[in-house]
User: Fold this.
Amino acid sequence: MKSSFPPKTLLSPPNWKLYVSISRLRRFWFNVNVWFRVTVTSSSNETTFAAAAVLIPWSDVTLLGPYIPGEVGNNAQPDWFLFWLEGALRIFPPIEFGIPGTFVVSGPFIAGVVLPGLIFTFLALYPFLEKRVYKLSGEWHVLQNPLEIPLRAGTMLGVFSALLILSAAATNDILSRMFGVPIEVITWISRVAVIVVPVGLGVGLARLSRRRLDRRGRTVPQNAVEEQQRYIAA
Assistant:
């Protein structure tokens, strides 16, 4: 037996007026409930933020002291995902070149514009470079062990280690204060490390990956099917 809602008897005059009133009342109560929850949530968040601003020493002037413009370092730090860019700006040598009277290319421009552009361009072109070097074919839609392709393993480790070192260089003033080392020493250590460490780690991991393939009698898989069969066999 089929049932209908609302019942036909309820919709028949004069009960339809009662049904409309109940519907409006339910809609009104729903809106009041939503408004109450939003108000309580917003009020609790604002109360939490206000209490945190008063009770938690986010920037304790009594501990850090006032800002001194003449100092090399300060406590201004960017968001974590821009640490590497801040580090590049801090450790890049103060060089300038250009044509007098026309344009000047300075160190901050190279570190803040040219270097990020080169990094992102390289990361965008790397898949095509890898495909050309190893003569890969077809489309790849499977997960793959990075050690199966030595160039990829070494390159990615080198790039990310360079970004981590640049991120650490963004806190050179804090590291100088923490370890009691002059900030110039921290800057020069970062300049040398950002060149030597990524190259050493990248070349080392690429050789390790190549030796791993040689020990197992394998070569770089040429397509996704071969890689998938290798994964199933493992």
Observations:
- The chain has two domains: 8-55, 61-233.
- The longest strand covers residues 96-99.
